[in-house]
Amino acid sequence: MIVTLSDLERRVIPNAVLLPGAIVGAAIVAVTDLSSLAARGAAAVGAGTFLLAVALAHSRGMGMGDVKLVAVMGLYLGRAVVPAVVIAFAAGTFAGLGLIARHGAAARKREVPFGPFLALGGIIGFWSGDAIVDWYLDSFFSP
Predict the structure, then answer these.
(1) Which among 129, 10, 120 is positioned nearest to 65, based on CA atoms?
(2) Euclidean distance between CA atoms 31 and 137, whole angstroms
(3) Can you count the helices (H) and strands (E) in the chain?
(4) Among 21, 104, 8, 113, residue whose Cα is nearest residue 60
């Protein structure tokens, strides 16, 4: 909620939320499932690197708060961060298309914060992300 409301209101995802979130996420994993810490760390680095590339390629469209948020999501979600990010991009795309349909070409100059879409993707990733990854791998990479 903090990320979504802050990004909607101020267009900022505060480090004061992300840093403690990352520390708590790493601590939870260390205590409950230490064997997954490396995989979750890799998910955090991979997701963060992917969004960093997007942010660098389109610096006016995405901020570093989004990059750090998706890295923290990787700690919590592990491999389920992949469908979370895909869902976030899909939801953001549909919202953008809705703005274009409503406001025409002028909508292209409007800024839409990406944090709420990442939060939505994170929730879906938390509930169903592993099942989505398993379905995808079974459907396309199973003999």
Answers:
(1) 10
(2) 29
(3) 6, 0
(4) 113
Structure confidence by residue, pLDDT tens digits, 99-143: 999 998 888 888 889 999 999 999 999 999 999 999 999 999 988
Task: Fill in the DSSP letter of residue 12.
Answer: -
- Which residue type does 127 have? W
Specify the 3-state DSSP secondary structure of 1.
coil
Measure the CA angle with vertex 116, ends 5 and 59; round to 5°.
Answer: 105
**Encoded tokens for 99:** 């703005």
Q: Are 7 and 122 in contact (CB under 8 A)?
A: no
Q: List, for residues 78-109, the tens digit of each pLDDT value.
A: 999 999 999 999 999 999 999 999 998 888 88
Which helix H or strand E contains 80, and what residues bound it? none
How is residue 80 written in tokens? Answer: 């389920």
- Prediction pTM value: 0.92
Say how far apart CA 33 and CA 27 lie, in whole Å. 10
Distance, in Å, from the CA atom of 78 to the CA atom of 38, rounded to the nearest integer, reads 9
